[in-house]
Amino acid sequence: MTVSRFALALPILLAGCVGGSGLLADTDGDGLADSFEEEIGLDPDSSDTDGDGFSDNEEWTALSDPDNAESYPYTGGYDRTLAPDDLGDDGTGNEVGDVAEDFLLVDQFGDTVNLYSFYGQVILLKNSASWCGPCRSSEEEAEARYQNFRDDGFIQITLLGEDNAGQPPNDAALNDWADTPANPVTFPVVSDGQWGVGNRYERDGGIPTFSVVGRDMTLRSVDGQHGDAFIEELLAEDIDAITRPEAPSEDEVGDLPNEQLEYDYAGFDGAAGAPWGGASCNAAGGNAGVFGLLLGFLGLAIRRR
Fold first, then answer.
1. Number of domains in the chain
2. What mean pLDDT is predicted for residues 277-293?
3. What integer pLDDT is reported at residue 12 of this predicted model?
4. Which residues, in sequence order, are CB contacts of 89 under 8 Å at separation 6+?
5. 197 shares a domain with 100
6. In this structure, are 18 and 52 located in the same domain?
7. Residue 174 has pLDDT above 80, yes or no
8. What does DSSP say about strands 219-221 and 209-213: parallel, antiparallel, or unpaired?
9. I need a labelling partner for 86 at 20 to 30 A (CA). Which of 5, 21, 105, 215 fits?
10. Residue 182, CB-side half-sphere exposure with 13 Å CA sphere
């Protein structure tokens, strides 16, 4: 059998690039290696496993769940943290020392905010209403506190129980509260119709009501009045961070979706189906890539006989 110099050279040349690239396969091009996605239970053929509009890599980096369509990076930029899987399994309550009960409430950006996504942070919960003047005026101080302490692991959540008409706040009411020119806020303002969550912490029947949750998600104050010194005291507490497996670095993952190399060449089946990315044939190829190039040029020298 005779073999053309091109037919022999091409697969050997490309095999040298692929074999020596050292890059990890990334079939869906989301920046997470296929092997890593398989390890953590994601679909390596889909860049958005849960179909929520955020790539698996975006969600993994932002500490949301790439396999849960109800969990995604917060539009407001609030820092998510990871909570223990068994948080609350031993019981929750509404008194000081109890593990706070989780909640899911919609914020001014239309995102569903859940309390447990802030595990490891100090959380100030504030019962408010659109018609409550003292609730509104105290938000300027609240925003300053948030900006002062957020990098240390602090967040406030305003639980808005009623709009100006005494109804559960809709999107317009939430945005009107958050965007008031005199004192706009950047922390979550959530619709808590008729204080379904806020009433857990109401003791004196008047608003605003302030309650504080510690880093370990236990209630440290219920309907209390505390200054910034109390927040600083809680921020100084240590807690074991919950971590995830570390994803391969960008340098280890191909920068383009993988393709399949297909050859109709008997005797070179090993090259068929070999994955490669846009950055496969580069300096990372090392000796194996150089060796492949040499073999490729050798193939070009073959002549029909």
1. 3
2. 39
3. 41
4. none
5. yes
6. no
7. yes
8. antiparallel
9. 105
10. 7
In a domain, 305, yes or no: no
Which comes out higher in pLDDT, residue 111 or 9?
Answer: 111
Exposed/middle/buried for 232, CB within 10 Å: 0-12, 13-18, 19+? middle
| Structure tokens that stand for 244 in this block | 């995830």
> Which residue among 179, 200, 235 closes a domain?
235
How confident is the prediction for the chain on average, in pLDDT?
A: 81
Which structural domain, as residue segments, surrounds residue 57?
A: 29-73
Q: Are 123 and 68 in the same domain?
A: no
Q: With pLDDT > 70 as the criterion, what percentage of the chain qualifies?
A: 76
